[in-house]
Request: fold
Amino acid sequence: MKSIVKGSLLTLTLAGGFLFGTVSLAEPGQQPDPSAMVQRLTEKLGLEDATAEIVASTLLDARKQKQALRTEAKEQVKSLHTAVESGNKKGMISAMNSLEDIKDELDSLKEETASTVKSYLTVEQQAKMTLHHIHKRHRKKQRARDRQQR
Reply:
């Protein structure tokens, strides 16, 4: 069961990074252009347009939900700071519980989205996405090492 969940989470992580990582945004915080995402899915993974649109829509919807949950988490962190500063133990417990609930919701959203995305990808498409992600991570680590050496 854990390997299935890990595989699903990996698929979602890779799909999100694969698509959102290089899609240009008009302004920071704005959603990626769905048509650009569909084009990228079509070109890079060989998905048909209709399938690419479904996957892109799924990922964009999940992204909106994640952003809302992260905004809620920021508010709870502020509440936690306030509770700590004032010594309000009930406030601390409430904020910590809310943060844990938000984390659980984010984890659940990742699993659900990964399952949906994976259902549209062939093994070959999943492999292409995995390779892309590995290369991207390697380049990121290399750039970090290069910056440290300066």
In short: Confidence is low (pLDDT under 50) at residues 1-6, 8-15, 18-26. Residues 2-149 form one domain.
